[in-house]
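In full, the data.
>
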Amino acid sequence: MQRYDESSIRILEGLEAVRKRPGMYIGSTDGRGLHHLVWEILDNAIDEVLSGYGNSIQITIKEDNSIEIIDEGRGMPYKPHASGRPTTEVIFTTLHSGGKFSDSGYSVSGGLHGVGGAVVNALSQFLVVTVQRDGKIFRQSFAEGGTKIGDLEQIGETKKTGTTVWFKPDPKIFSTTLMNYDAIKERVRESAFLIKGLKVTLIDERNKQKEVFQYFDGIKEYVSFLNKPRKPFDEVHIINSQYKVNGHKTPINVEVAFQYSESYSEVIVSFVNNVRTKDGGTHEIGFKSALTRAINDYARKYNLIKEKDENLDGVDIREGLTAIISLRISEDLLEFEGQTKNKLGTPDARTAVESVVFENMLSYLEENLTVANHIITRSINAKKAREAARKARDLARSGKKQNKKEVTLSGKLTPTQSKDKSVLELFLVEGDSAGGSAKQGRNRHFQAILPLRGKVLNTERASADQALRNEEINTIIHAIGADFGSDFDLKKMNYDKIIIMTDADTDGAHIQVLLMTFFLRFMRPLVEAGKLYIALPPLYRLMRKRGRNEESRYIWTDEELNQIEDLQTYRIQRFKGLGEMNSDQLWDTTMNPETRSIIQVQLDDVSEADQKITTLMGDNVAQRREWIESNVDFEVSDDFEINKEV
């Protein structure tokens, strides 16, 4: 046994704790955690803008994937701290240090916990901070996880103010250090939308790319941007008001922009002090409550809902709604749940948003009677559709008058032997032929097979009851067993992983997109929990003689095939579909957890994902054509002859 006594207790000094347990501070050490470092420094630059200092930020992705962020704020304090060290050194080497803890630094800030700069330094190969302040330019450098490699030094004089932070994430910490331009672009554009007039320049030196983001109508333009692929039936409405909290000097500023469209989907994106709260929180709860109450009150007032009828449900009222909620909250009121600041916990935020939105929404409905009646008519229809879908679902569960569907499900689904839901996998397989191979090749203990016939319904253009009437969609819902829509319950899932397994061709890709659209629209918590995967079957099988035996290997991409030096010694088989693979081949390459490759579908940005799905799967043909022409390479060709000796 290992010894456990006083000598076993270790104190991690300085930033050592961050390097030892980075996930506690940035969530993960994959691509999400990598970009979280960028957000920490960017948030600090934005805090200066929110406080009224500077109106321009520049972000540069260097050729070595290091990041440089330049702001035009006051310039970071650099003079000796009470601890005796330069303040720059304190900020970047000491956890929970910063201007957000005093009354004099920031009245409104997103970087509440004071670990941003220090954590970025701890997890970087190097970090250099340059300060322009008091007519002088100062610089200090750190390396290998926050070790000081030089004292603060003056390197010049200037009439400007601001701070530049240049850092490179440490490859010993992160599984990847490749910066994603599109991910940073989305965050930068988002910040520009939230602060009217803010100019953010994004430069990528790796491919000589440069874009400038600046919006003077703020979140009104943000809603218009998100609704570009849709068909709105009213103008974007803006709510901007302050709510005074008893006992607090600085009021909560509530800004909301919303617009209804003919879409079936709901998009609500919320922020606090320019920080995305992707898991919502008290402000989203307040908004939804106010919206539901206002529309029901209006409908009752004008007898659009009969006295004997129940109120409209919030999920019905929000069908087709796109809304941005942006709050400014002072430091003394701000509460997040967790360091990564994904969910707001401030109780007063709910009261503030609910009060402000309810009053404004009632006025909006009274002033826009045609729009108000259309919203309520749509909500009533959505309620009827949802109730019809629920009745059909309940009948299917009870078995009454639905035996045919139950038999269909049991005939299609090949179940597992184990009942341990934590290890079970459900493969959604394209076609009966591939389904047959998968059934033979699977591990019966924990892998279930559900073959799908033909193209799945495009749920971007379907209501809930239309989706449930579709046999394939209905079968998937029943197989997963966790309901759908607002009633979906992650805890009731029959499987831990849902794996989409289709042919490696355009039809297979189309089915993948149709299924991902369904899961995003009707089972979003499943996607957010990381339980949706895409299988990666190989494209090629290479075969050649080795003595009396035949050697074979599998290739997943054309690029991988091109890199094989002795390709001429192989016979090449191109798999046209999963049905061409034997059950043992399918197991070895695509289903065996020890050898397979699968992609986890991650939902980093709900608004971006929603917009792309609406563009690709919605009714706007011109928008879809424009996206395809801008993003798809039509010059790709296959140069390899199949099943032929080379």
Q: What stands out?
A: The radius of gyration is 28 Å. The first strand starts at residue 56 and ends at 61. Confidence is low (pLDDT under 50) at residues 1-12, 100-104, 401-408, 634-646.
